[in-house]
Design a protein that fits this description.
With 453 residues, the chain is α/β, with parallel strands linked by helices. The chain has 13 helices and 16 strands. The structure holds aspartic acid and magnesium ion.
């Protein structure tokens, strides 16, 4: 057994083509501790598979299937053992054609089954690339043997105990022999039905694998060199963060930083696994360490922006000195599986935010029926096109003199809702989406750029 066990995840852009896969294999080769290699589908493939699922036209489906076939067989052309690997790919691709073209009903089960082919194909090629580059024997594992989930198709919940058991049974023995390549994102119910963990779920898979084998380090190799103080497309002098705590990183991913899937930190925190984020394109550039304890504890480490927020405000004079109103309100939301992010209340009204972005799970749940049910006991007001800005750092709730400069910077901006105090790691507020980028620029300059100078 190696001294350290590392689980490394390579995302879609890291799997884009033969060259990208080769770069990842070279990263692997340098480090004998990288034992479990978890991969995403090649970039764009999960989107194509989603289109395939959505399509109702046989010709369109055939076109998409052809594109998927060509892109994978083209990558395989660069392999030394092209013939052997192409046979495996063709088997998978034929099965995909069959599942897609013969489907009679459109179900979440079918969606998971179709989407799973993306990772099955990429991992089949990548295992071969790693073996070719390292000269080692590499084991390919069907993640569904280990990643046991519930049957909530398209957003399945992992069964941590079952995963640990299976990892011990199947994965650990393989690791003692050599490196293992497996798929992110996909899992299986106890009855063997394919599930997925939700879009972007490969990070989460990698963290769950790391947890199950008691890994020391989880590495996320992606297309950015590090976690940044804010989105560099909004603030060009945003800087890479060298280290950040679990709590801060969790807030950042929840509040919109696209680097990690929000659930990724959960297993890492449970098992105190150090997480590293780096770029597979420029692996020599320093990345970000996400740790339980960091040496520095800045009040504001990063600023995130999450678009497509909806603010719902409910008023009712019945709320005045009454009990049970909030319970009733949340009962309705819970019945319709509506996930609320922020809440503020006054004596007679409650405001809540919902994520209505394209990939937000359950975004369509807030429908006319819910509105009707709510209007039976309160007035409902809905505002769209809002963005949530979060300042993430340490002791924000007890740092005196913070809100003055923050809101001073927002003088001309209409701030729709503020949440401050519930968490020591964030202060967040909603603004009109049109002003959001400008606000991030001003705050970043004031609290990060000018402070570090
Ligand atoms: N391939 C899946 C997706 O695109 C999972 C992932 O990349 O993390 O959502
Ligand atoms: Mg991805």
């Amino acid at each position: 057994m190696p001294d350290l066990i590392k689980t490394a995840k390579f995302g879609g852009t890291s799997m884009a083509d033969f060259l990208a896969m080769t770069r990842c294999a070279q990263i692997v080769k340098k480090d004998p501790d990288k034992k479990v290699l978890v991969v995403s589908a090649t970039s764009g493939t999960t989107n194509l598979l989603t289109q395939l699922f959505d399509s109702t036209c046989a010709d369109e489906k055939r076109g998409i299937l052809k594109q998927i076939r060509e892109r994978h067989l083209t990558i395989a052309k660069s392999l030394d053992r092209e013939a052997e690997i192409s046979v495996k790919l063709i088997n998978l691709l034929d099965e995909l054609d069959e599942v897609s073209l013969s489907a009679k009903t459109v179900t979440p089960q079918l969606k998971d089954k179709l989407l799973s082919f993306g990772e099955m194909l990429s991992s089949t090629i990548f295992a071969e690339v790693v073996s070719q580059v390292t000269g080692e024997e590499v084991y390919w594992l069907d993640a569904r043997e280990v990643m046991i989930t519930d049957h909530h198709h398209t957003a399945a919940e992992p069964d941590i105990e079952a995963i640990a058991e299976k990892a011990e049974e199947v994965l650990l023995p393989l690791i003692s022999e050599g490196r293992v390549v497996t798929q992110g994102f996909i899992g299986s119910t106890k009855n063997g039905r394919t599930t997925t963990l939700g879009r972007g779920g490969s990070d989460y898979s990698a963290a769950l694998f790391a947890e199950a084998i008691n890994a020391d380090v989880l590495e996320i190799w992606t297309d950015v060199t590090a976690v940044y103080t804010t989105d560099p497309r909004i603030v060009p002098d945003a800087r890479p963060i060298t280290e950040i705590s679990f709590d801060e990183a969790a807030e950042l991913s929840v509040f919109g930083a696209k680097v990690l899937h929000p659930a990724t930190m959960v297993p890492a925190v449970r098992k105190n696994i150090r997480v590293y984020v780096g770029s597979s394109i420029q692996p020599e550039k320093p990345g970000t360490w996400i740790l339980k304890e960091t040496r520095s504890h800045p009040v504001i480490r990063a600023i995130s922006l999450r678009r497509d927020q909806t603010l719902i405000t409910v008023h009712s004079l019945d709320m005045l000195h009454q009990h049970g109103f909030l319970a009733r309100l949340f009962r309705v939301l819970s019945k319709h599986k509506i996930s609320v992010d922020l809440v503020t209340t006054s004596e007679v009204s409650v405001s809540l935010t919902l994520d209505t972005g394209a990939n937000a799970p359950g975004r369509e749940n807030f429908n006319e029926e819910v509105r009707k049910e709510l209007s039976e006991f309160c007035q409902v007001e809905i505002e769209n096109n809002l963005s949530l800005i979060a300042l993430v750092g340490n002791n924000l709730h007890t740092t005196s003199g913070l809100s003055g400069p923050v809101f001073g910077a927002l003088e001309d901006i209409n701030v729709r809702l503020i949440c401050h105090g519930a968490s020591s790691h964030n202060l967040c507020f909603l603004v009109d989406s049109k002003s959001a980028e400008g606000v991030v620029q001003v705050l970043h300059k004031k609290f990060i750029t000018d402070r570090i100078k």
